[in-house]
Amino acid sequence: MSGLPCSVAAFSLQRMKLNPSFFYSWNMVLWMNFYAEYGNKVKRWKGFRVLGCDGSNISLVNRPELQKYFGGQSNQTSSFVVAKTFYCYDVLNKMILFPQIAPYRYGELRMACGIIESGVIQEDMLLIFDRYFSNYKMVALLQFQERPIKYVIRVNENLNIAKHFLYSRKQSTEIKLFPSPASIDGLKQYGYIVQKDTPIKVRLIRIKLSSGKTEILMTNLWEEEGYKVSEFKALYSKRWGVESNIDFQKNILQLESWSGLTPISVMQDFYATVFVSNLHFLLIKQAQKTIDDIMINKKYPMQVNNNKAFGKIKENLIFLFVREDVPEILRTLHAYFIRSPLPIRKNRSFPRIRKNPMSKSKFRTFTNYKPAY
Question: Where do the H-state alpha helices sit in 95-252?
Fold first, then answer.
């Protein structure tokens, strides 16, 4: 008989039958249809979809089953159960494409390499990475594909290539990278055989941040192809979009408030949160266009209030998939989204506060915090 509640034990038993990959596939259907439907309205940079690629730690409930599967960190007084996540985020269209979750010790670099080698990166995608990924192995995997993948990577300032380039005072140059023993061994795992004298050509570019600090970028966007030095500062700054989306997931979608205490339930929650994030930004797109049109004379550009918008989406999320009056629900959501927009104050920056790595989570993760719906 429909409409009757089930017990907590029955619900928990039934959810364990749902493979977390269902939410991953559901998310893939969502973003693939988005690109297909929007067509030439999809935002691009010089013809590329710009993917900010980065990972994050997420805190889990400290339970033996989760500790055994995901691992974590510990010291003399306490232990933390932590999972590692990785995202390829379309920073211009606000879509997460290839989310990954793995045990803590798996590592962001390994997750990024796995995505590249899986062949899912398409020809019109440009990948932007932080300095943790500035090594021969990553560059080799990107350039050794049948169609080399375009990328921009911030170079670790402690590397010799960065020090020599800074000393040269050039704005742009092309150099050859050579592998370390670790890179040679790492590439063997993916079927690539390189020697210590196997070179890879890369382009180095100097950019100066508003703080006055100089950063070095590594790329295969060549000058002769029309990519000017002056364009790279703004391009690399777009990578911050993936950081903002991770913040949105953790602080508004409450990613770290888990509805279950098993590895399967954690993975279900993770991929479901990614799906909801993509659905959220897809639903507010038309409202943002309306705000842009009706508030054109404001002192600051205005944007949809994501916190309030998600609160309304959460109330109607299930109805979008089970009710027949979906157009009416969408009209109601649109009317709500355009109320109380927030100003966008550009060019603001705040010092980044480095947290203790043992307590990166905003709050302690407790059990039974998030509703299981």
Answer: 108-117, 136-143, 160-168, 181-188, 232-237, 240-251
